[in-house]
Specification:
about 240 residues; alpha+beta; Jelly Rolls; 2 domains; five-stranded antiparallel β-sheet; 2 helices; 12 strands
Length: about 240
């Protein structure tokens, strides 16, 4: 701040009086204010972009993180779903495999027809059938007419005998377990003059242990002489002991 000296004509004092130079002071104040405004403008130019840019950058980063997390979550869900599906299929296949294996293991069945003759094996007469309709397993021996149990359990056996139309007299056979008589299958008519033929059928349930035998035998006549070819003998396992 500048000052000027000015003599005043007063009678009280001869000391100079300092007066403020208002013009110079105004210029200096204006310069100072101008510099301050420039500094403020520079500061605003420096900080304002940072402040404005910081918000979008923060939002973008957050969105990217959320998208990445969502993608990872979807990937995990897909992988887990695929594993569950594969496990489900594996369990189904395993169950089917076990059921099929068990069914093959416990299945035993046969059906024969066309009685051929009446032969004796080991002192026991048995009916031999000429035609094997069906057999699951190897328990029935068609050459001896004997079923030999390989799977302990309960079995169903049925016999159907059809009398020839031209034959006369009563016919019958017996169903045996080992050497024990079980049931008789015989001509339902007692009229020897009946030449029109007759059929009879019997069935029974038998529990067998491994090695037990079942057969049709002790017929009163040769089967081929008075039985029609469609006479049959059938047996199968209902359920095993295991």
């Amino acid at each position: 701040m500048e000052f000027s000296e000015k003599n005043c004509d007063t009678t009280d004092s001869n000391e100079p009086i300092l007066y403020e130079n208002t013009d110079a002071n105004s210029v200096n104040v204006a310069l100072i204010e101008s510099k301050k405004m420039e500094e403020i403008d520079k500061d605003e130019e420096h900080y304002e972009p940072l402040r404005l840019d910081s918000k979008p950058r923060h939002k973008g980063t957050l969105c990217n993180l959320q998208e990445d997390a969502l993608k990872r979550l979807k990937s995990v869900i897909y992988i887990v779903s695929a594993l569950i599906f594969v496990l489900y299929i594996a369990v189904i296949v395993l169950i089917i495999s076990v059921v099929m294996t068990n069914s093959r293991a416990i299945a035993s069945a046969f059906s024969v027809d066309k009685p051929l003759n009446h032969s004796s094996f080991n002192g026991t007469s048995k009916v031999i059938f000429a035609h094997m309709i069906y057999q699951h397993g190897i328990d029935f021996n068609s050459s001896t007419g004997t079923f030999t149990c390989s799977i302990p359990g309960t079995y169903h056996f049925s016999v159907t005998l059809v009398k020839k139309r031209a034959s006369s007299g009563v016919f019958y056979c017996g169903l045996y377990k080992n050497v024990s008589y079980i049931i008789t299958i015989g001509d339902p008519t007692d009229d020897d003059t009946n030449l029109r033929g007759a059929a009879t059928s019997q069935s029974t349930l038998i529990h067998l242990d491994k090695g037990d035998t079942v057969y049709l035998g002790s017929c009163n006549e040769q089967p081929s002489s008075y039985m029609e070819p469609f006479s049959s003998f059938t047996g199968f396992l209902l359920y095993s002991d295991n």
